[in-house]
Amino acid sequence: MQTSAAPYAGGSRGGTGLLEGLVRVAHRRLGPWYFHGLVVATGLLVVTVTVPLQNLTQVPLWTGSFEGWQYIGVFMAIAAASGPFVLGLVVVPRHRALLAHLRGQEVDPAAVWRECVTRLPATAALTSLAWGVVVVGGGVAFVGQREDFGVLTYPGAYAAHALILVGVAAFYLMVWELALLPITREVARALPAGFREQSLVTGRRRLILLNTSITFTVGCETAGLSVGFAGEHRSLMVVLVLVGLMTTYVGVLLALVSSSVTRRVDELADALNSAARGGAPMRMLPTSGDEFDSVGGAFNTMVGLLEDHAEELRGSRSRLVSVADATRRHIERDLHDGAQQHLALLSMQLGQLESTCAQHGSVAARVHEIRAELSAVVAEMRVLAHGIYPASLEAEGLPSALRAAARESDVVVRLDIAVESRWSHPVETAVYFGCWEVLQRARHAATGDATLEIALGEHDGTGTVELCVRPALPAEHEAELALFLQDRLGAVGGTLVTRPRGTDVVYVGRVPVR
Amino acid sequence: MNAATDERMPWLDTLFARSYARHRQRYVELWLLVSAFGILLLAWPSQFWTEHPLWGPGGGDAPAFLVSMASATAIVVLFVVPWTLRVAFRPIVLFLRGEPVDPTDVWFAAVRRLPVAGVTFTAAFCVFGNIPTLVAVGRPRGFDGLDYLGGWLVACLITAAAGAFFVLAWEIAFRPLLREVQPLLPPDFDGGTSWLTLTRRSALASASAMAYTGAAVGSLVAGSEDREHVLVITVLATIGASVTFGGAITVLVSHSIFMRLSELKAALVRIGERDYRVRVAVRAGDELDEAAASLNRMAERLEHEEAELRASRARLASVADAERRRMERDLRLRVLARLRQVRQDVTEVASELPDVPALHRLCERVRVTTADAMLEIHRLARGVYPAELTSGGLEAALEAAGQRAAVPVSVRSDGVGRLDPVHESSVYFTCNEAVQNAAKHAGPDACVTIDLARDNGRLTFVVSDNGQGFEAADVGLGLENMRDRVRAVGGDLMVGSAPGSGTTVRGWVPA
Questions:
Q1: Whether residue B161 is found in the same domain as residue B223
Q2: Closest CA to A342 of B342, B383, B384, B366
Q3: Contact between residue B162 and residue B118 where contact means Cβ atoms under 8 Å apart
Q4: Which end of chain A is more exposed for a tag (fewer CB within 10 A), N or C?
Q5: 3-class secondary-structure state, position A456
Q6: CATH code at B427?
Q7: Could you report the per-residue pLDDT of B310-351, keeping only the tens digit for each?
Q8: Residues B269 and B361 in one domain
Q9: Where is the HAMP domain (chain B) (predicted)?
Q10: Where are the domains of chain A?
Q11: Distance in angstroms (rounded) separating the CA atoms of residues B409 and B352
């Protein structure tokens, strides 16, 4: 079972989403600096977009209204100052194998895979922990001092902020999973066949994490904005705020879920489709350590098992045929070594008898008759032996065995042989008996003078045999013959197609000859 | 056959599957009752009290609450229950009572009408539940138009979230039903594509969780002006809403996605074990349908291919068998019969020979050689295909073969009668090969017993010797060929042996 040679599911579809396209372009452009680029981009995005947005919704909770914009600046400053340290000290050291892989160094693919898949959630958790202590802790402490926070206000403000942080971390985790996907797929190809590792973040848990974090974020942000917009028509404000937040996040969610669920479902459908069409067996790559990987693993196992099973069945079929052929050869040899020798001796003895009793006219004539009868038996025996197994097939090869068969037949046989070297013995035997069967049927079934055309050829290690009987055989013979040839050639790994030529049918067989 | 029936099911499935098994006749009514109580006792009152702070201070809460509960009860009793039972899920109700219904209708009701029913009921609650409530609440508080609009929209967000929850829950509730309906659907059944794809389903769940949490938290913080209170409420309400409602709806949606995935996986495992009759249900009109349909097509193809390969093997075996019979007949009729004529002629000539000793001697030699040749050909023909097998059947042929064997052979049979020639010859040649193996390997004093028995559509044969036996690992090519031969006609063969305890070849063919 050649795992590395098998194509992989999902390659044909490519990424359809905007995010996936972006990831592909970035991965191609940045090359070895892809991971660094990812870290820097994340840092910039967090400082310039996430932090201001997050704090914008929290300001009312601290000040009771939309005053104190300067706190957003304070948070941004803390984030900008500590971001490089947090990302540099937590993220980069945890993904060294990945960095080495991007630089083109020899690394264990399993280690890279783990860093892309199973290690990522822990990295996200550690990063947000560090972020929560340094940035959120520092920021809330600063704000608390200015705004005279009480004993309950500090933990309250901190917890609300931290809940939003959970959402942000989950969001970035999923973005990173998507961003590292090209690398995951790349290294997954080099993984050993049975590789299966379970990530902490399974598909079910991913959805739970996603929804929990998104509700955390929405809950705390709505609370802040609801306080900020307190006053006339407060419920309308709540609805507007909520609808605004929902439409923003649902779009992002759709993109993330479709990358983690829909993409995998498509891959699965691809793999199953290829198996249903009977094409080259596909393999599914492990890229997430979740339920989909487990289904992919089950699929790969199934393909392997079925291949083994089909191999076993085919092996059994070809063994059956080769045993039957060996038996025929054995019988022919027995005939040749035993019966035919006896008959030769008998013929000689009859000759002696005839010459000895030459002067007894009537008896000599009877003995002569017996000799004539015996030579008829000997000829019959030779034809029979040739039908059982032509001695020349093994010694001289397919063409001369076919010529001998043609000579002995009363059907006109036109041979067109464009083969120079010998084919493997089982193949020669299969082709010979295929032709022999056609010859027999042409003899028994064809009306009038039958002609059989046999053309042998060879191209790129594939032998072709084309058989055509004229006039055409009766329909039921044709069907039986096609089945017989298909079985006989199939047993040596060949195939058969029937092709019309005018009113006749040509049987075209292809066999692997080496 | 369904892939998921014998899988270990998660608790949610187990709950529904059990109640389905126990209360099949009243399954829809049962869960409708549970849902109705859920709405009236839990969802609706909690919605009222969640929104309460947002409306601001004012009196007359108790009458407003009564109005709200009365309108919700009216919707449930007058619309939801009768419409569900009489119209929306009527095919399901009839099907579960065992009345004749088109399974296609049942499928449509359970899969495609369910989201529609969800949307309809949600709309009913938004219009006939939320508006009276808002009016009852807003009048004492002196709401203006925008206040009414805002309050109504917040209420609708919560109602819609609850509606989504019930749709997802009912989807799982209908799973046992669909497992039963799926095999009854016509083979060319096409459910079309549903609006509720996996991605949308997941987004719907998230949106509901967000709407519910946001509305609840936004409204609850409105009740307090104190900063510390607000922050505490924010944090606690967020976590609470997220864990309760968000958690529940996420469990539902992830279950509805991954349950189908585990069905696919179970089917793949079973197919790997060559159980090609497995089919997975294609039903929801979503992305997984394509995978499920492909899986079913794949199983069909594999089943077909395997059958082809087996048929091809059986045909080859039967062709080889027919060839042997033909060779034997040719040897007998075309060679032996004519040689017999030669022998008779020679005998006649011998009686007419003049009294010359040399001639008589020569003639005698010719006669001996003829007899030898006939004997040789006879032996060969018997080896190719024993005439006893054609004329007398298995027992006779094995008895005759046993008498010719190099070891004593006894055949025990309670009369197996005649079988298909291919099956007879498979058993004959396999037993013969086993006897020859015993003669070669079992040792000098060994004797062989052949047992034949026929029952339950099988002919069983056992060839056992009391010889030396061999290590089971030494099963050689000869045994493999025997097995191929028997398997080619649809049977099987096993060899048991251990040093010192003889060898037993045990096999069967269909009879």
A1: yes
A2: B366
A3: no
A4: C
A5: strand
A6: 3.30.565.10
A7: 888 888 888 888 888 888 888 888 888 999 998 898 888 888
A8: no
A9: 255-307
A10: 18-192+200-289, 306-388, 397-512
A11: 47
Q: How many angstroms away from the CA of B66 is the closest CA of chain A? A: 22
A216·B320 Cβ contact <8 A: no
| B249 and B229, same domain (yes or no) | yes
Place of tokens 């459910």: B191
Polymer length in residues for chain B? 511
- Tell me, yes or no, if the pTM score tops 0.90: no
* Residues of chain B numbered 157-196 and touching chain A (CB < 8 Å): 157
- Torsions phi, psi for B10 (to 5 deg): -65, 165
> Which residue, of B233, B266, B285, is where some domain finishes?
B285
Number of H helices, E strands in chain B: 21, 5
CA distances to A10, A127, B202 from B205, in Å: 27, 28, 5
B492-497 vs B458-465, strand pairing mode: unpaired
Positive or negative, the CA dihedral A456, A459, A460, A464 is negative
**Alpha carbon distances (Å) from A200 to A94, A117, A214, A414:** 17, 9, 19, 72
Comparing C-alpha atoms, which of A235, A82, A415 is closest to residue B155? Answer: A235
Q: Omega before A471 cis (within 30°)?
A: yes
Please check whether residue A492 is in contact with residue A324, taking contact to mean a CB–CB distance below 8 angstroms. no
How confident is the model at residue A466, as a pLDDT? 93
Phi (first) and psi of residue B492, to 5 degrees:
-155, 165
**Given an 8 Å threshold on Cβ–Cβ distance, is A491 in contact with B312?**
yes
Superfamily of A397-512 according to CATH: Histidine kinase-like ATPase, C-terminal domain (3.30.565.10)
A282: chain B residues, CB-CB within 8 Å = none
Residues B476 and B159: their CA atoms lie apart, in Å, by: 74
CB B212 within 8 A of CB B241: yes
Both tokens of residue B182?
A: 């799926």
Tell me which residue of B261, B265, B259, B288 sits closest to B278, measured CA to CA: B265
Domain that holds residue B327: 321-384
